[in-house]
Amino acid sequence: MQNVLPDRLPWYIAGPALGLLVVALYAFGNKALGASGAYRAALGAVLRQPGAEIWRAWYFVGLFVGALAVAVLRGGPTVELGYATLGTVVPMLYLVPLLFTAGTLMGFGARWAGGCTSGHCLRGVSELSPASLGASATFFGVAVLLANALHVLTRGVL
Amino acid sequence: VNGLGFVCGLTFGFVIVAARLSDDNVIRDMLLLRDPQPYLVIGSAVLVAAPLLHLLRACRWRAPLGGETVAFRGEAIRRHHLAGAALFGIGWAISCTCPVPALGMLATGNLLGLPVVAGLLTGIVLRDTLVAAKGARRVFRPVPAG
Q: pLDDT tens digits, residue range B9-40?
């Protein structure tokens, strides 16, 4: 089963494929693509909350299965605790709460901003929505600055 | 539309992981501006989607499963978009992953995707709870006369 997939799907296939997905969701279902909303819907579906968007919960399940399919095609999935760079610097005892905190910031931030990288950068920017253009610029601006600041402050370790 | 959601999710998850965007080192190299590939992925996605979406809207396309005509309208930029995005950016730079890639991490067996996914859910619920609390307070506030 190995080598069915290239080690890394090149951008000129991955990018247009993601773009077509945004279009397909509108063309067939008149729905706006987004991942943070899918997290919310999945939780709502599990907790049987009224008003949860069930199709988004299915989208969430699809994300997981799609990722799993790649792992299987690559001969996996292999259970591991792998955090390439951060994992070499931060001991596991601190790494888990740190990642949890980072996740919480992203979840809170995405909900506050009305979307995350897929909802704003992919779908919203394609709609040329001013809010999404601003949010995307901020996502990248803040993350690039902070990543580079960490890189310099840790003398290139992070 | 549930089936459509599943199929779109499946393809999305597949492409993200196949393009190695669920690899924290790839995102790190992207944020350190060493690897142009993730930017090219997003850029080409937008270049493909933008004209097609606007074409759908211009010809008042009726989605077979969605009923109505495709009519997205750009949202005006407000402060909460930027504040939330800044918070998101901080988490992104630390974790080097975001909602779909984190799920991809978990699905491919990397158990460290789990705290990120748990954090994402916690953050989302926290924000929604805060909004609901604010809304409740607003209801009890006396309405000014006139």
A: 999 999 999 999 999 999 999 999 999 999 99
